[in-house]
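User: What would this chain look like folded?
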Amino acid sequence: MIRFQGRKEALRKDVKTQLSTLEEKERGDAPLHAASLLMQTPQWKECAHLLTYLAFREELDTHPLIEAAFHAGKTVYAPVIQKSSMEFLCLESPSGPFVEGKWGLREPHPSAEIWTPNSELTVMIVPGMAFDEKGQRLGRGGGYYDRFLRRFQNLNQTLWRVGYAFEAQVVEKVPTLPHDQPIDALITNKKTRQFSCL
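Assistant: Here's the prediction, encoded as structure tokens.
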């Protein structure tokens, strides 16, 4: 297990190095390119709800996607960390209001409505440090997204799990364990990859 965790940490370090070498133009253009690719999918056109992270540090910015969702009349939710778990709360607008949460993350106001599954399609935008061509994901190590995805892993027809990243974060193979949760699709600033049908 120690060797396995070491492989994960080494991969995180390698990807961070790759991201640090991105040219400013590619980094600036990437959020619009990725959002455009996502908006071309039938799942985006069909969905009523969007669960999305609020970009932090080197993550691919989701603000263009959030603005597009509000413009299309979709309900948008963002994550709130609660001890060892995570929930998604409703955003009033692309600009908040936000409060400062764990690690300095922006979060919706704690009084906002919580997302609960229903019969309508929800698209979930999943961040990560690295993704591979088989739909496996490497997070930051906290396990929040894996635990959340595991809670709702039976919602195969109403929750579309989409990895969202720079193309530089796609690697040959992500080291995984049985409890690690795969994604249904991966969208980068260069390409859409579909791993499972919805």
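The helical segments are 2-20, 24-39, 42-46, 63-71, 144-151. If you want, I can go into more detail on any region.
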